[in-house]
């Protein structure tokens, strides 16, 4: 997706340890026009997929998932990284955050992820696939069908995409980072 790739190259910042900071337009300050374009591209890529719900995990996946749900007229459910006192009847799994270097108990209500659901998972980054693995676990627990996963940015050098594809998961990534060596952003097909 050219507009996204151009924006990463213009405004993305690289830090040692394989960290790409895109907080100027994706996960702190957001560009709503870019989010709309991202949602439209995900909709195009998943057009032939049977889906009745968009699924994400808080927090940075919420904006593109909401935009996608709005355009498709579908509900959006996000898994929470902290159990609210008001949440009963829940499914839970553990997820390790690459960026924050900590574990989260990720929860979702059984009322919103059910056996009849056909879901697409949307998130900002795919690195080692930890959030994605947690979502796969939650879908298995609920009986929901995971139809595919969409990521704004995939860091191909961190193996999450390879793992998911080897498990038979349909993965759609809008920008694939091949390398961040020497803090130089190298994007596939850029």
From TrEMBL:
Q: What is this protein called?
A: Xanthine phosphoribosyltransferase
What is the native source organism of this protein?
Leyella stercorea DSM 18206
Membrane-spanning parts:
54-78
Q: InterPro entries under this entry?
A: PRTase-like, PRTase_dom, Pur/Pyrimidine_PRTase, Xanthine_PRibTrfase
Q: In which pathway does it act?
A: Purine metabolism; XMP biosynthesis via salvage pathway; XMP from xanthine: step 1/1
Q: Which residues form a coiled coil?
A: none
User: What is known about what this protein does?
Assistant: Converts the preformed base xanthine, a product of nucleic acid breakdown, to xanthosine 5'-monophosphate (XMP), so it can be reused for RNA or DNA synthesis.
| Chain residues that bind xanthine | 20, 27, 155
What is the protein's major site of localization?
Answer: cytoplasm
> Has keyword RNA-binding?
no
Q: Name one GO molecular function term.
A: xanthine phosphoribosyltransferase activity
Can you say where in the cell this protein is located?
Cytoplasm
Supply the EC number(s): 2.4.2.22
Q: Name one GO cellular component term.
A: cytoplasm
User: Assembly and interactions?
Assistant: Homodimer.
Record GO biological process: purine ribonucleoside salvage; xanthine metabolic process; XMP salvage
Entry keywords, A to Z: Cytoplasm, Glycosyltransferase, Membrane, Purine salvage, Transferase, Transmembrane, Transmembrane helix
Swiss-Prot/TrEMBL catalytic activity: XMP + diphosphate = xanthine + 5-phospho-alpha-D-ribose 1-diphosphate
Homology family: Belongs to the purine/pyrimidine phosphoribosyltransferase family. Xpt subfamily.
What PANTHER family does the database record attribute to this sequence?
A: HYPOXANTHINE/GUANINE PHOSPHORIBOSYLTRANSFERASE, XANTHINE PHOSPHORIBOSYLTRANSFERASE
Q: Which SUPFAM superfamilies match?
A: PRTase-like
């Amino acid at each position: 997706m050219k507009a996204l790739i151009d924006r990463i190259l213009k405004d993305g910042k690289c830090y040692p340890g394989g960290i790409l900071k895109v907080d100027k337009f994706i996960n702190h300050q957001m560009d709503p026009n870019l989010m709309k374009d991202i949602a439209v591209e995900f909709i195009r890529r998943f057009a032939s997929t049977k889906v009745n719900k968009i699924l994400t995990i808080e927090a940075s996946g919420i904006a593109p998932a909401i935009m996608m749900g709005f355009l498709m007229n579908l509900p959006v459910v996000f898994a929470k990284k902290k159990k609210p006192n008001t949440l009963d009847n829940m499914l839970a799994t553990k997820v390790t955050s690459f960026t924050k270097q900590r574990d989260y108990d990720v929860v979702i209500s059984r009322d919103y992820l059910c056996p009849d659901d056909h879901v697409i998972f949307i998130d900002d980054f795919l690195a080692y696939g930890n959030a994605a693995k947690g979502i796969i676990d939650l879908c298995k627990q609920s009986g929901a069908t995971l139809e595919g996963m969409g990521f704004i940015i995939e860091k191909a050098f961190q193996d999450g995409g390879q793992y998911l594809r080897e498990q038979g998961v349909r993965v759609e990534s809008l920008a694939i980072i091949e390398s961040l060596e020497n803090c130089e952003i190298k994007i596939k097909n850029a």
